[in-house]
Design goal:
This protein is about 60% helix and about 0% strand. By secondary structure, it is mainly α. The radius of gyration is 16 Å and the shape is globular.
């Protein structure tokens, strides 16, 4: 009730929800991730440390720009990282 009355009416529906529903959370993406699961886990675990179990923004920039050269522009990596942290109000519905 608190969210329905005080939060959801004031937040615009973001275009990222459509991206997540149609592109990210689909069977084709799932198949690609599953096919590359062990390699992805190996890369992700290379960023772990005894007290660090998550990748930071700097780690993501390092991986995408310098190591893999997937996204050549550092600003685009930072934008993608920020959008991945963005809250979507209707995500749980």
């Amino acid at each position: 009730m608190l969210l329905d009355n005080n939060c959801f009416p004031f937040g615009p529906v973001a275009e990222w929800q459509e991206f997540r529903d149609n592109i990210w959370w689909c069977m084709e993406t799932h198949k690609v991730i599953e096919a590359n699961k062990f390699g992805l886990q190996k890369i992700y675990k290379s960023y772990w440390a005894p007290r660090k179990k998550h990748m930071t923004k700097a780690d993501c920039v390092d991986l995408m720009v310098r190591l893999c050269q997937i996204i050549p522009d550092e600003n685009k990596v930072i934008w993608c990282y920020g959008m991945s942290k963005m809250h979507i109000i209707s995500e749980t519905t």
